[in-house]
Write a structure and sequence with these properties.
Length: 297
């Protein structure tokens, strides 16, 4: 047996995860503007640049003023209104991470609003300002800009995790994290197998079979998964389908009908309705926008 020559060395923390950043935009809206009631499978962060916003979150009403920051975890029903008579300008972005421990830490922080003139707001605002500066860039985005976006996101998540770590009540049982990760990995494996196999078996994607393969009961699996990820396993699977559908739609040589089948929909009309629910636009319009290099997508 070979001796491990490096076992005595200190190592940096191991990290096997993926993060996503999307739908970042800045907008001025008039008094009376209302966003659609929605809940997302990812985190949403919103900064009020001017004016005031009324946010209804899980049936509770909050008023956000200039420079206030709102962090909405996955699965939280919310609706935003422009509360200011002179209109409102805001910056918003969506991001996600699939590491269960990091995700749980951010979700269970429990804080939605980071008011102006607080240390936490100052830290987060300085990071968001870098995104806004990049957003306001007049020239085309470069490859280095893409990596800069990722670097800023990593610093933002680090800031939120540090804030959460100050609350010792956020600690979670390692066994629960392991169960949630097992369910997520089973969903990922089954979806990848389904996608790559020409003879696709939709039984692989049924939640009852996912739970059985993960050796977890449906009720307990749902409870644990939502506690860690903030969304249900079905919503997690939908997230994978949406991500893959977007990638395929960007290829104009693949028909919408073929994409529908590849991500698990036998009915293209059903797929189109679901995609519009995810993206806010139809697959056809999404393809038109992405093939003309719309930076918002």
């Amino acid at each position: 047996m070979k001796k491990d020559l490096y076992s005595h060395l200190k190592k940096l923390p191991y990290l096997d995860t993926s993060i996503s950043f999307f739908s970042a935009h800045k907008q001025h809206v008039p008094h009376g503007w209302k966003g659609y009631p929605s809940s997302h499978t990812a985190f949403e962060i919103l900064l009020i640049l001017s004016g005031e916003q009324e946010s209804i979150i899980n049936q509770n009403t909050y008023i956000l003023k200039e420079n206030d920051i709102l962090l909405i975890p996955p699965g939280i029903l919310h609706e935003n209104h422009c509360f200011s008579t002179k209109g409102m300008t805001y910056f918003a972005a969506h991001f996600d991470i699939d590491d269960p421990a990091l995700r749980y830490t951010m979700i269970k922080n429990g804080r939605l609003i980071y008011p102006d003139c607080t240390p936490e707001n100052s830290t987060i605002r300085s990071i968001l300002d870098e995104w806004i500066q990049l957003y306001d860039k007049k020239t085309a985005y470069t490859l280095s800009d893409r990596f800069l976006t990722l670097e800023i996101l990593a610093r933002l998540m680090t800031a939120f995790v540090k804030i959460s770590e100050e609350n010792e009540e956020n600690e979670v049982n390692i066994q629960i994290l392991s169960i949630a990760r097992s369910i997520a990995e089973t969903i990922q494996h089954n979806f990848n197998t389904f996608f790559l196999n020409e003879n696709r078996d939709k039984e692989q994607l049924l939640m009852k079979n996912i739970y059985r393969e993960a050796n977890i009961s449906m009720s307990y699996g749902l409870e644990v998964f939502k506690k860690i990820y903030g969304i249900s396993p079905k919503e997690y699977l939908d997230q994978l389908k949406f991500k893959e559908a977007k990638r395929l739609i960007r290829n104009p040589n693949i028909s919408i009908e073929s994409i529908s089948d590849q991500v698990g929909y036998s009915n293209v009309a059903h797929f189109s309705r679901q995609f519009k629910k995810w993206a806010g636009i139809s697959p056809k319009i999404y393809r038109q926008k992405t093939t003309s290099f719309d930076p918002s997508l």
